[in-house]
Amino acid sequence: MKTLVVGVGGMTNGGKSTLSRSLHQQIPNSCIIAQDSYFKDDSAVPEDSNGFKQYDILDALHMDTMMSDVDSWRRDPETFLRQRGLGPERTTPSADREVFVLIVEGFLIFNYRPLNELFDKRYFIQIPYDVCKRRRSSRVYTPPDPPGYFEGHVWPMYLKNRQEMESIVSGIVFLDGLKPKEELLAAVCKDVCQEIERLRGKLPKAGM
């Protein structure tokens, strides 16, 4: 049994959840862990000097719990899937050639060093400011975004977090979130599937 950990990061409303779900549907023996599932209660999220809730920082998330779930998958992906009602079917002739794939999706997954170190593949979806703002304004959040939240907090924090990410992380494949969803899925799925085949011993390592 072999494992592959894929990170799908990106800005708010960039399409990372859609891409992750589509990858999961295409790739056997895969599952998703989404960073958005680990937000702390609203009362525990700090405010900045403008009174905006700081959801766009690591301290707003239960990263220890998220890492515990990731580690559980890494120890025994088959049991992890069964416990969540996702028991995999055998997809290859022998167990030692099976590859289990974990898709970790979130906006700060590459900024958290212990998690970033685990990724075999890293993808980051980006979209322009105006598109991001329009998509964000069309969604309903709990609690809802206060007036000026996107311009005053969300976008500045995205720029800050991205700068930090690029200073500490290498090997990220940047994706254009304006491209058709099918095109993005095809490109990423091809890349991931090639890595799966390499792990199964059917393809040589890159550069060989």
TrEMBL record:
Give the species this sequence originates from: Dicentrarchus labrax
What keywords is this UniProt entry annotated with? ATP-binding, Kinase, Magnesium, Metal-binding, Nucleotide-binding, Pyridine nucleotide biosynthesis, Transferase
GO molecular function ontology, one term from the record: nicotinate riboside kinase activity
This chain is encoded by the gene named: nmrk1
Q: Does the keyword Transferase apply?
A: yes
Q: Which GO terms describe its biological process?
A: NAD+ metabolic process; pyridine nucleotide biosynthetic process
What family classification does the UniProt entry report for this protein? Belongs to the uridine kinase family. NRK subfamily.
Report the InterPro entries cross-referenced here.
P-loop_NTPase (IPR027417)
Q: What is this protein called?
A: Nicotinamide riboside kinase 1
Asked if the record carries the keyword Disulfide bond, the reply is no
In terms of Gene3D superfamilies, this protein maps to: P-loop containing nucleotide triphosphate hydrolases (3.40.50.300)
Cellular-component GO terms for this entry: cytosol
Question: Could you tell me what reaction this enzyme catalyses?
Answer: beta-nicotinamide D-riboside + ATP = beta-nicotinamide D-ribonucleotide + ADP + H(+); beta-D-ribosylnicotinate + ATP = nicotinate beta-D-ribonucleotide + ADP + H(+)
Report the pathway entry: Cofactor biosynthesis; NAD(+) biosynthesis
